[in-house]
Amino acid sequence: xxxxxxxxxxxxxxxxxxxxxxxxxxxxxxxxxxxxxxxxxxxxxxxxxxxxxxxxxxxxxxxxxxxxxxxxxxxxxxxxxxxxxxxxxxxxxxxxxxxxxxxxxxxxxxxxxxxxxxxxxxxxxxxxxxxxxxxxxxxxxxxxxxxxxxxxxxxxxxxxxxxxxxxxxxxxxxxxxxxxxxxxxxxxxxxxxxxxxxxxxxxxxxxxxxxxxxxxxxxxxxxxxxxxxxxxxxxxxxxxxxxxxxxxxxxxxxxxxxxxxxxxxxxxxxxxxxxxxxxxxxxxxxxxxxxxxxxxxxxxxxxxxxxxxxxxxxxxxxxxxxxxxxxxxxxxxxxxxxxxxxxxxxxxxxxxxxxxxxxxxxxx
Length: 364
Known about the structure:
Elements: E1 2-6, H1 14-28, E2 32-39, H2 47-55, E3 61-63, E4 77-81, E5 93-96, H3 99-106, E6 114-119, H4 130-136, E7 142-145, H5 148-158, E8 162-164, E9 185-190, H6 199-211, E10 216-222, H7 229-235, E11 240-243, H8 247-255, E12 259-262, H9 271-278, E13 282-286, E14 301-304, H10 309-321, H11 323-337, H12 342-363
Parallel strand pairs: 1-2, 1-5, 2-4, 5-6, 6-7, 7-8, 9-10, 9-12, 10-11, 12-13, 13-14
Antiparallel strand pairs: 3-4
């Protein structure tokens, strides 16, 4: 099959990482796969962007695979002018991801491929253009999604039936040969500047645990800020910080910690939490919605209500004080994550595409 992926960008993102993984694996399965990203038109008030665009007007542009230097990728990234559909090749299947690409793909002629919309978050919860985003879930496209929570939202709010493909963890990248437990306990957390990622809630819960006299070490990683001094200042204490760790470095970070704390208000799925579980790090998470496919409260994780700092603090204290529970959550979580595999997902996705093409031919 000829398959086109439309990505919103190639910056570090769990959703982009998953789509690139599918694209590369489908290519390895013998399909002809191409990956495109739009070159956005500068905002009318951004003179700096207009000047940059004038200095580099050459489009379309093909970026080599290594342009994506934060995850494994062997495919070229093709950049096309936003809204210019004639740059998109004819194909059997075209996959949109973020809401902007879905809006664009829905308007393409049939020769560009059977349109699929890979929904990886309910973007109308947080994007600026909420009204536009929510309308894309009603578009006449076949829907794929990554969590039971999203599948249910699409059914209840948009009467859309979605195929469920829970994104697996790459077990060749994230693994743990032998878990080493620490005293004091090491707690890992992601820094992000989106409010809904809950970073401030996480820091507040860590602060409360420290106020109880618990001896803990906080380990934070992120890609939004290089110099962590402002983070130290706002937290009121310093901690171990890693800026843009490579996948190999990130595995070592996860494996070196006892607990992974996910304080997000909502997540389409929550890949960092799953990656940490694959490294035998016990999970404490807020009820993000997307976590329901892997975070079973009291068994594979300790789950707190959303935006409930007191509950996060209580669950942190429970795992810090109860080594038996800590190790049980770790092992059960590790086994749960093992249920999701890339081989099974790619085979399922290939079958979905082939069935759609057969149905398309029958209708035609």
